[in-house]
Amino acid sequence: MKKFFFLFAVSLLAKMSWAQPATFVDDILTIPQAALIDAVEPVYYADVQLADNGDGTLSVVAGEAQNLVNVDSIEVLIMESFPVQVSVAVSGNLSVPCVELLPAAVARKDSVFTVILAETVLGPAETCIAIIEPFETNVSLDVLGLAAGDYTVVVNGVEAEFTLDSDNVLSN
Known about the structure:
The protein has two domains: about 60 residues, no CATH class; about 100 residues, no CATH class. By secondary structure, the protein is mainly beta. It is about 5% helix and about 50% strand.
């Protein structure tokens, strides 16, 4: 498989207090969840295994791609506080009522925040009625330290914009 670096997964795991930690056993790094965001189409993975190549690099040896959820709408919410706090209210549909929403993967490059939302996968012996299941969730964006300006949020392909009217930095 191609070499991918899932550095985002490490920061995602650090933010999730209930998450299983990544483990390194027998030259295999296992990460419970990871997202590949710098791609043509973002992908969310579960149970990613990375092998140590012995030269400081890692290669993907296993991982289960998760289904991305259908997002109908997003709304950026800017809290009246200082420092400013920003979150995104997301509504959409899970593919069936028997799956769950996975933790959001969030990354920022320049002025664009990318959020990937995926769902768990049914097990091989599981069956579920084939109707969509609506969901709503809020995703926090890390805007501390950002300069005043215009920003874009993309959640599974749905875009919204927001403006920070002033620099969002703490002063001493």
